[in-house]
Amino acid sequence: MLKNFTLILLIVLFILTSQLIAQAIPVEGKKMLISAPSPYAVEAGKKIIKKGGNVVDVATVVGLTLAVTNPYFAAFGGGGFAMVKVGNNPVDVLDFRETAPLKTHPQYYLDKKPEASQNGGTAVAVPGVAAGIYELHKKYGKLSWKELFSEPIQLAEDGFNVSGEWTARTEISVSRFNPKGAQHFLKNQKAYQAGELLKQKPLSSFLKMYKRQGPKAFYTGPVANDIVKTVKDTGGDLSLQDLNDYKVRWLKPLTHNFKGYVVYLMPPPSSGGVVLKTALSLIDQLKLENLESMSVDELHLMGEILNRSFRGRALLGDPDFHENPLEKLLSKNYIGDMAKSINLTKAKQLKPLSDKNLNESNETTHYSILDDQGNSVSITVTLNGNYGSAVVSEKFGIALNNEMDDFTTHPGEANMYGLVQGKGNYVQARKRPLSSMSPTLVEKDGKVILSLGAPGGPTIISGVLQVIYNSLVRNMDIDRAIQSPRVHHQFLPNVLYIDEWRLQPATKKGLLTKGHVLEEKAFIGRVNAVRLKNNGALEAAFDSRGEGAVGGY
Ligand code: GLY
Q1: Can you tell me which atom of ligand 1 is nearest the CA of 433?
Q2: Is 364 an active-site residue?
Q3: Which of 404, 403, 392 is nearest to 363 (CA)?
Q4: How do residues 348-358 score in pLDDT, each as one tens digit?
Q5: For residue 403, which atom of ligand 1 is closest to its CA?
Q6: Which amino acids bring their CB within 6 angstroms of ligand 1?
Q7: Out of 99, 122, 278, 364, which one is annotated catalytic?
Q8: 391 - beta bridge partners?
Q9: What's the CA angle centered on 255, arms 252 and 258, to 5 degrees?
Q10: From ligand 1's centre to the CA of 461, what distance in Å?
Q11: 156: helix, coil or strand?
Q12: What are residue 382's DSSP bridge partners?
């Protein structure tokens, strides 16, 4: 009898556990869902939903938690963009991207080592995350600022178990870290191994100050002094004045009407919106929906559309410093010419609009939160490279970006990815470098129904485009829309990048026959997204191309 009871209990436990596992990716909900790169961040967010927090409160705790658990792309030493829709307010855009220090100028890197914009203090731009998280919450949060800190402080103080990705990303940075900063992430000179407990007491003491004082705790006082000293000791020119003067700015999104939806896109200093708007127009003009989904023809045209859409990107820069030719790039004539230049049977390359092109690295991340009322936050943050410049502030353990490499550092010469950047993106004091980050919202009948974004440098744009397309045109559920194979083309080099391992040999052969030069890529964007379905239910998924988590209620 007892044996039977134990057996039944075991079966019930097995069923319950396997359901939990089955629900891990993706999830459905009725109230609010989160898609983010870390389960710790999602769990912290869920607690804030339970407390009655709105999407911005949840985004705040997710951002604070990621700064603890995923410092290689979400530390306070980085910057980012947020797109937000709360209540009856129009969709708003917060730009908390890093700015160039006062001492930098267009020739700053010319007499320095080639990697000066990538490694060490000379690579560090003025970080924006601490100001960004605070400003977003101040304008749109519902719970008090101080209510949002208990989980992140506890994770920093008592520790969290590092993930496989944490270990991999830290291991490859060991030789780049400044020795005094490295102590915050290493044990016996080695990265913590997956599953080991990492405590960050100095970071928790910063979080406590930040909770009390807001961004002052980062841009003035002991933390600012620590950052300035560390950057100076590693060869850079960031000053206390640079930190004191840092300001976020609110921008208006670009919009695009697409098949009955309104798509809200990132304006400059992101190139994302301009490229995506061009690509969505070309999808319409070339009637991609008439082709078979995932066929050679469809992937070929998607590649050609991206190629043409990226062509104008080298003309863009920070709008406070550079006049962006948006009227020309988004005009009916220009986009019509691009459509006419695309041929279904053969890949074709056009002449560059300038002899410059650009690229950024993959070490960025994204999180999206959407509720059943269509309130949403879509945030992309980055340090640029893995752990950014690999300069970590000595006392507080804050990893600092190498966002300076997103500028045109050597006019006319290639950057770390073999590409050359445009004039509008020259280094200038206080200027923000051009970005590809594309937090995006899609609205139907006045309600946000899709919130998404991705890391991946220029591949962000291709990832976001194809998830929007799969979701809105091909009616795929959000998980399938994300996991489906994608392509990427960024105009220069003239290569069609294809998802590693996700395309059939016959499809690759078909693309080669059309004249494409193919290269496989480990990830073409790594999308996090939440969607509100027609039946009112929410669904969230993260990309199987990397670590992630989804959850909510
Ligand atoms: N640093 C990557 C980007 O801003 O696109």
Answers
A1: 4
A2: yes
A3: 403
A4: 999 988 654 44
A5: 1
A6: 360, 364, 382, 384, 406, 435-437, 457
A7: 364
A8: 400
A9: 165
A10: 11
A11: helix
A12: 79, 364
CA-derived radius of gyration, the chain: 23
- On the question of pLDDT at 91 being above 60, the answer is yes
Torsion of Cα atoms, 515 then 517 then 520 then 524, to 10°: -80
Average pLDDT (487-508) is 95
Q: Is the dihedral of CA 328, 331, 333, 334 positive or negative?
A: positive
* Mean pLDDT (whole number) for 274-301: 98
Give distance in angstroms: CA of 260 to centre of ligand 1: 30
> For residue 190, how many other CB atoms are within 10 A of its CB?
12
Q: Whose CA is nearest to atom 1 of ligand 1?
A: 384
Classify burial at 510, counting beta carbons within 10 Å of its beta carbon; exposed 0-12, middle 13-18, buried 19 or more: middle
- Residue 440 φ/ψ, nearest 5 degrees: -135, 145
Question: What string of DSSP letters covers 489-518?
Answer: --SSS--EEEETTTS-HHHHHHHHHTTPPE
Higher-pLDDT residue of 20, 88: 88
Residue 254, classed as helix, strand or coil, is strand
**148 Cα to the center of ligand 1, angstroms:** 27
Residue that the structure tokens 């920070």 belong to:
318
Distance, CA of 36 to CA of 392 (rounded, Å) = 24
In a mutational test of the pocket of ligand 1, which residue from 437, 438, 526 has the highest number of ligand atoms less than 8 Å from its CB? 437
Ligand 1 mean position to 383 CA, how many Å?
A: 8
CA 319, 321, 323, 329 torsion: positive or negative?
A: negative
Q: CA-CA distance, 529 to 375, in Å (whole number)?
A: 14
Half-sphere exposure of 539 (CA within 13 A, CB side): 14
The answer to whether the CB of 437 falls within 8 A of the CB of 98 is no
d(CA 392, CA 541): 32
What is the C-alpha to C-alpha distance for residues 379 and 366, in angstroms, rounded to an integer? 6
Token pair 């980012």 is at which residue?
Answer: 80
How far apart, in whole angstroms, are the C-alpha atoms of residue 75 and residue 130?
9
Which of 316, 406, 408 has most ligand 1 atoms within 8 Å of CB, for mutation? 406
Q: Are 80 and 132 in contact (CB under 8 A)?
A: yes
Q: DSSP letter at 74?
A: H
Tokens of 343: 């041929």
DSSP-assigned states of every residue in 283-336: HHHTTGGGSPTT-HHHHHHHHHHHHHHHGGGGG---TTTS---HHHHTSHHHHH
User: What Cα–Cα distance (Å) separates residue 389 from each residue in 163, 397, 406?
Assistant: 22, 13, 12
pLDDT of residue 1 exceeding 60, the answer is: no
Cα separation, 287 vs 387, in Å, equals 42
Q: Is the pLDDT of residue 331 over 70?
A: yes
Which ligand 1 atom lies nearest to the CA of residue 458? 5
- Return the amino acid letter for 399: A
Residue indicated by tokens 């999180």: 367
Pocket test residue of 266, 361, 438, 440 for ligand 1, highest count of atoms within 8 A of CB: 361
